[in-house]
Amino acid sequence: MPKFTSELVNDLAKKLLIGLTPEENKIVLDEFLIIDENLQKVEKFENIKSVEPMTHCLDDFIYTLREDEIKPSISIENALRNCEKVEGREVEVPKVVGGEN
Amino acid sequence: MDKTIKELHEMLQNGEMTSKDLIQESLKKSYEVQEKYNAFVTILDDAKETPVTNNLLSGIPFGIKDNYSTKDILSTGSSNTLKNYVPFFNATAVEKLLSAGAVPINKTVLDEFGMGGTGTTGHTGIVKNPWDSTRITAGSSAGSACAVAAGVYPYALGSDTGDSIRKPAAYCGIVGYKPTYGMISRYGLFPFASSLDHCGVLARNVQDVAIVVDTMKGLDDKDMTTWDSSTIHLYENLDGKVGGKKLCYIKELCDIENYENPTEELKRHLENFKEKLAICEKLGMEVVEVSIDKKLLSALPSVYVAISCAEATSNLSNLTGILFGSRGEGRNIMEMMMDHRTKGFSPLIKRRFVIGSYILQKENQERYLKNAQRVRRLLVDTWKNLFKTFDAVILPVGSGPAKHLDSGNDILTKNAEILEEHLQIGNFGGFPSITIPDGFINNLPVALNITGNCYDDENVLNIAYAIESAMPYKNQIAKEVSHE
C-alpha cells in the first residue's frame, strides 16, 4: 500500500482534477493521519473481518426493477439551459482530436 | 410568524389574515434576518399567495435549503461551482409541498453541498446564530435553522447526512427531524453521500415537523429507496401517551466521569440532560442507563468521514463546468475542468474528495472503506439490539451550546468528539431521529435527541411530543444575548 505522502496527495488531487495549495495539502495529510490511526484500531477488533460491510441503511429493503418502458424525457432546451457554451443543439467544447493538449 | 402551523391555518381560515399578509411579513423578516445573520442565498420577492384549503400548509410560507432543486429558481448547493445553476424541475419533496399550497419564500444557505457542520463554508458567507451572532449555527442546514429560529416562517426544509438537521436545530433552539431513510424521496436533492443522505425538516415544535413530513413523505418512482409509508400518520398519532415506554441513555456519553478536564458547559449540559430524564420518568417512561463498548464508539467519527468522503467523491464527479455550472478557463477540456473544480470548490470539499479518492483506490478499499462499513454495521446492530428492549435512545446533542465562530482551532474536551458526532449513527442505520430543545446554558439553547428503530417514526415523534409538552421550550423565537 503506498504511503500517504504529500506527493501522493497531489497525485490524487490531480486525478480528481483539483489543484491544492501547500496548506491544503498539509491539512489533508494531518486529517488523514487521524482517520488512519482510528481505522488501524478497527483492524484489531475481534472478528472484524467476519462482519458483512454495511453499504445501505435498510437491510430489509426489497429492490424492484421497473419494466423497460419508453417515457417522455427532458427537452434539449432544458438539458442545455445551464450550459454556458452551446451551439445549436450541442454543447460547445474546445477541439479534442487534434486540439491543444 | 411566531405561530404554529395549526394556529396560522386557523387564522387563515377565519379570515384574520391572508396568505398575502403572511408572505409580506415573511419577506420583510427575511431581509432583516439576511442583514443580521446571512441566512439566504435567494429571497423570492415574487412569492405568490395560494388559496387556503383544508390542507394545513396551504397559504403558509416556508424555506427551502439550497441543495433542493427548485424549478426556475437558483439552486446552488451553496457552492461556487453551481452559483448560476437554475434547475428545470422540482425535487419531489418540494413538489409535494407546492401541491399542498405551501409558499416558498427563500432558499437557505448550507455548508457547501452539505459537507460541513458549522454553517461557515457556503459560497455566500458565514451564517450567524440568531441567539448570539458571534457563534455558529452549526450545519449544514444553517440558514434553515437560523431562519426558523428567527421567526421568518414556521418551518424550513433541511437535509441530514451526519447530523445536518439535528445539530443546527439544537444550536438554534428549535426542533429538527429526519425520518427513517427512504420515507421522503431524495429525488432532486443534491447528493452528498447517498447511503446516508436524508431529507427532513426544521420547525419550532414537534407537531409542526409531523405535519410537514406527513406531506413530504411517500413512494416515488424517481427514488428507488423510497418505501410505502401510507399507513404512517405522524400528526394524527401525536397523543402524548407515553406511559410504559422504555428509554435508554448511554453511560459512556452521559457520565461526566468519562471526560478528562470537562468544560463547565459540558458539565452543565449533562446535568441539564439528567434533569430531563427525570421528566421522562414523571411522564411514566422507564429510563435505563446502558453501557456500550467505548472502543466501538470512538471509531465513529472516522468511520463517518471514510464512508461519506468515499461516496461524495463519486457523487460529485459530474461537477465539471462543461454540461452545467460556470465554465473554467483552459486550452482543453481537462484544463477547463481542473480550473472549474479548483476555483469552485472550497478547501474543505477538496480535502474530503482527496481522502475519499484515496479510500476508494482498489488497494485501500479493504483497509479503509470495507472496515468502515463493517464498523457501521456493528454500531447499527448495537443500536438495533437496544431497540429490542427500548422504544428509543435518548441522548444529549453535542457538548453544550453553539461554539464561537472563531473557535475553529479550539481543542475539544478529550473524548467529547463522540458526544459531538453520535447523531451520525442515525444516518448509519437510517433511524428516525429528532432533536428538541431542552434548556439553556448561558442564555444559549441546548438540546436532547430521541432516536428509534426504522419505521417507528410515530413512536419516536410521540415520545418527543410528550417530553416537549412537559418543558417550557416549545415554539421559541431566538432572543439575541447581549455582550455588553
What does this 3D model show about the protein?
- The complex is a heterodimer of chains A (101) and B (484).
- Chain A has 101 residues and is mainly alpha-helical.
- Chain A has a domain at 1-51.
- Chain A has 3 helices and 2 strands.
- Chain A has helices spanning 6-15, 22-43, 76-80; strands spanning 86-87, 90-91.
- Chain A has a two-stranded antiparallel sheet.
- In chain A, a hairpin with a 2-residue loop joins strand 1 (86-87) and strand 2.
- The mean pLDDT of chain A is 87.
- With 484 residues, chain B is an alpha+beta fold.
- Chain B has a single domain (1-484), classed as Amidase signature (AS) enzymes (Alpha-Beta Complex).
- Helices cover 38% and strands 14% of the residues of chain B.
- In chain B, the strands form 3 sheets. Chain B has an 8-stranded mixed sheet, with helices on both faces. Chain B has a 3-stranded mixed sheet with strand order 1-3-2, sandwiched between helices. In chain B, strands 4-5 form a two-stranded antiparallel sheet.
- In chain B, strand 12 (433-441) and strand 13 form a beta hairpin.
- In chain B, helix 10 (300-315) crosses helix 12 (347-360) and helix 10 crosses helix 13 (362-389).
- The longest helix of chain B has 28 residues, at 362-389.
- Chain B is globular, with a radius of gyration of 21 Å.
- The model of chain B is unreliable at 409-413 (pLDDT under 50).
- Chains A and B meet through helix 1 and helix 2 of A and helix 9, helix 10, helix 11, helix 12 and helix 13 of B.
